Amino acid sequence: MAFPQSNVQRELTRNKILEELQIQKKQLLLKQGATPTINSSPLTVSTQVVPNAEGGHSMNSHQQRAALQTAHAQSMGYFISQDSLFGNLILPVLPRFDQKKIEERLQCVTGFDKPKAKLEQYITPPHLGSHILYTIQSQFGDLDGKLVADLGCGCGALSIGAAVLSASLVVSFEIDEDALQIFQSNIEDHELTNIDIVQCNVLTIPSRFYKKFDTVLMNPPFGTKNNEGLDMKFLEVALNLSNNVVYSLHKTSTRNHVIKHANALGAKAEVLAELRYDLPATYKFHKKISVDIEVDFYRFTV
Ligand SMILES: C[S@@+](CC[C@H](N)C(=O)[O-])C[C@H]1O[C@@H](n2cnc3c(N)ncnc32)[C@H](O)[C@@H]1O
Predict the structure, then answer these.
(1) Which of 110, 112, 172, 174 to mutate to test the pocket of ligand 1 (most atoms within 8 A of CB)?
(2) 51 CA → ligand 1 middle, Å
(3) Does ligand 1 come within 6 angstroms of the Cβ of 48?
(4) pTM of the full predicted structure?
(5) For a FRET experiment, which of 6, 86, 159, 279 has its CA 20 to 30 Å from that of 191?
(6) Ligand 1: does its nearest atom lie under 6 Å from the Cβ of 126?
(7) In the prediction, which pLDDT does 21 show?
(8) Pocket lining: 175 vs ligand 1, CB cutoff 6 Å
(9) Measuring CA to CA, which residue among 152, 292, 140 is closest to residue 217?
(10) Any atom of ligand 1 within 6 Å of the Cβ of 157
(11) Is the CB of 297 under 6 A from ligand 1?
């Protein structure tokens, strides 16, 4: 003869039965290829993964695989399938970018109207800029969600690329008001809200900004003619501003000097790529239609 159950015992038994029923229901739905949600109503489109015999994961129907492929093809994000406690699917979406898309965006950045030779105003060409930015994000993850500074931003080619690649905020420093007016209209054309512009001489940025930025980007003046040494002064400021990493372009002919200078400032210098900077004839003193300059693309860690 069974002893009569107390209220608490009855409650416990009922809960146990309900739990078992939930598990059975889930297993049943998994076998049918449907996706149980928290309230167990199946979704019409799913990309569920189930553990396979080897302990790995496999898509559990053609329909689901097709849905994931469609999502990948049509979306600007990467979909990652995961198991959840409830056996249903979570699809986090990571921003997707590719070098071509960035290049297309940079091709729509308006450049200097009347470039000023004494400020060494050359826009970073879209092809070069997109490779640089793509490398910074895809190899090092140094843009997405980061606080970024762009020194000598000009009309904003690098800043706009960094903003498109989901920097949390880009603060862009430039001395020339005319360039910044063009930059402002570029920001509006690109409908970006994660860029702040500061008009100032980069060499006088106050020390309260030191170590405030995760990533510093720059295509600085190369320090030619009347600007001798300006590239290294920019580098010094960049290393002061960053708490992590600086990316910059410098003439290949100055490589030994740049690396020595960076080391003396306590930074590790790495040449990520040798590039050809195709400089179109911009100024009256340029005699050729265009000239290729060999440029190193650096990553400095502070
Ligand atoms: C080679 S351009 C690069 C422009 C832009 N970053 C790009 O990638 O297209 C160098 C920029 O540095 C700016 N510049 C030069 N000296 C500066 C200074 N002391 N402070 C701030 N900006 C400066 C110039 O006006 C110019 O826009």
Answers:
(1) 174
(2) 55
(3) no
(4) 0.73
(5) 279
(6) no
(7) 62
(8) yes
(9) 152
(10) yes
(11) no
Q: How far apart are CA 160 and CA 294, in angstroms?
A: 24
Q: What is the pLDDT of residues 149-197, one digit of tens each?
A: 999 999 999 999 999 999 999 999 999 999 999 999 999 999 999 999 9
Q: What does the angle CA 70 – CA 133 – CA 185 come to, to the nearest 5 degrees? A: 95
Q: What is the pLDDT of residues 87-110, one digit of tens each?
A: 445 555 555 679 999 999 999 999
For 170, residues 6+ apart whose C-beta sits below 8 A from its C-beta are 148, 149, 150, 159, 162, 163, 194, 195, 196
Structure tokens of 1? 């003869």
The two three-digit tokens of residue 215, written as one number:
């990533």
Mutate to test the pocket of ligand 1, among 108, 130, 160, 176 (most ligand atoms within 8 A of CB): 176
Atom of ligand 1 nearest to the CA of 116: 25
DSSP codes joined into one string, 139-182: HH--STT-EEEEET-TT-HHHHHHHHTT-SEEEEEES-HHHHHH
Q: How far apart are CA 68 and CA 58, in angstroms?
A: 12
Q: How many CB atoms lie within 10 A of CB 38?
A: 9
Q: State both tokens at 230.
A: 């300006």
Bridge pairing between strands 195-199 and 290-301: unpaired
